[in-house]
UniProtKB/TrEMBL annotation:
Keywords assigned by UniProt, alphabetized: Signal
Name of the protein this chain belongs to: Dipeptidase
Pfam families assigned to the protein according to its UniProt record, in alphabetical order: Peptidase_M19 (PF01244)
Matching InterPro entries: Metal_Hydrolase (IPR032466), Pept_M19 (IPR008257)
Length: 414
């Protein structure tokens, strides 16, 4: 989730692709789709759980990115050959100080239950994945591979043993900070700058706990110095679940070449994201953003609406989109610049895909998960082998997960 800083429950992206005019269907040969279907295709950052809590929204229905703004559901997973990925428990911590830890903790636990309930309600289509080996088995059974992750550890409060609860719930990946510094780590984007110069003392405890439990350590959104601390102190490879290259666009959310190389040298993986504002300089749409903000202030978060209110919310969103269309939108080439740069830098053993679907990701031409074969085709066109592409789509992150599992020592909490 890289979007709303307005509410506890993230709503529609301020830079949403809703109704934006752009080419959807692309000419990708059928063989490319077939090739991708033969691989384990995973995305490390699926922010769809927020939509799962919207009234009347079901993962089993087919939605339209230009209708309700969502980018992932079961019918589209089948069409785009996405086997699964990490469903995200995302918790905002703004406005700072307004919520105490317990309320935010409860929100995160309930969001985790939303993911578990979605999986339990559709046992023929989804299965909770807890280990790296689960991916191939679940795909082999014709179901979608459902890992869980937490983005922003803020809801853990000041008791790192809370991480054990999320582990028991099924969470196997942990991101430390988000837009703002928190009790564990500095953020890459806090307007007030760094607080600790890396991990806080509690953050080091959290890192130890994650290593011991067997959870993948995710440095996306954290500051460069937090990444440095993680690379130095984590007993397992570190990943970036949805990030880009600073060499392509100098944004604090993107990571410089030297650090990307160090991360790869330690066995980690860079999962490349497609969040427009991090791909290149984008001409701002202040009227559009102001209208989106006003709507959120007027109507609140979609998950708290009844069905009728939600429909009227969507109608208002469409009206804003018609009145203030996005003037400047990155496209596939902007995304591929990051992907190819990172591939050239660290090689195909250390790159993956984490598009930030339903969290603000997606570009013109790669609008939702039905467009994933466009990425496979671009990799083929650039000369990557089938084996390389399979590693990029899932093999690399599963390799990291195996290392994390091998080093785990999940003793009961003291
Ligand atoms: Zn994010």
């Amino acid at each position: 989730m890289d979007i709303s800083r307005i509410g506890l429950i993230a709503g529609i992206a301020l830079s949403s692709t809703l109704l934006a005019p752009a080419a959807l269907a692309q000419d990708v040969p059928y063989e490319t789709l077939e090739l991708q279907r033969g691989m384990i295709t995973l995305d490390t950052h699926l922010d769809t759980p927020e939509a799962m809590d919207r009234p009347g929204w079901s993962i089993m229905d087919r939605h339209d990115v230009r209708g309700d703004g969502t980018q992932v559901d079961y019918p589209r997973m089948v069409q785009g050959a996405l086997d699964g990925g990490w469903w995200v428990i995302y918790t905002s911590q703004d406005p700072e100080g307004e919520w105490d830890y317990k309320r935010v903790r409860d929100f995160a636990v309930m969001r985790g239950m939303t993911i578990r309930n979605m999986i339990a309600a559709h046992p023929e289509q989804f299965e909770l994945a807890l280990t790296a080996d689960d991916a191939a088995r679940i795909k082999g059974e014709g179901k979608r591979v459902s890992y869980m992750s937490i983005e922003n550890s803020y809801p853990l409060g000041e008791d790192v043993s809370m991480l054990d609860l999320f582990y028991k719930m099924g969470v196997r990946m942990v991101g430390f900070a988000h837009f703002r510094n928190n009790q564990f780590a500095d953020s890459s984007t806090d307007p007030e700058g760094p607080k600790y110069g890396g991990l806080s003392p509690l953050g080091f405890e959290l890192l130890k706990r994650a290593n011991r439990l067997g959870m993948i350590v995710d440095a996306s959104h954290s500051s460069d110095e937090v990444l440095d601390d993680m690379l130095e102190h984590s007993t397992t490879p570190v990943i970036l679940s949805h990030s880009g290259a600073k060499a392509i666009f100098d944004h604090p959310r993107n990571v410089d070449d030297a650090r990307l190389k160090r991360l790869a040298a330690k066995g980690g993986v860079v999962q490349v994201n497609s969040y427009a504002g991090y791909l290149r300089e984008v001409e701002p749409s202040p009227e559009r953003n102001a209208a989106m903000r006003a709507l959120r202030e007027e109507m609140g978060a979609p998950a708290e609406m009844d069905e009728a209110t939600y429909q009227s919310y969507l109608a208002k969103l469409r009206a804003i989109d018609a009145q203030y269309p996005l003037v400047d939108r990155p496209d596939g080439n902007d995304f591929f610049k990051h992907l190819f740069h990172i591939l050239d830098l660290v090689g195909p053993d250390h790159v993956g895909i984490g598009m930030d679907w339903d969290g603000g990701g997606g570009v013109a031409g790669i609008e939702d998960i039905t467009d994933l074969p466009v990425i496979t085709q671009a990799l083929l066109d650039r000369g990557y082998s089938r084996d390389d592409i399979a590693k990029i789509w899932g093999g690399n992150i599963l390799r990291v997960m195996r290392e994390v599992e091998a080093k785990a020592d999940p003793k009961p909490a003291e």
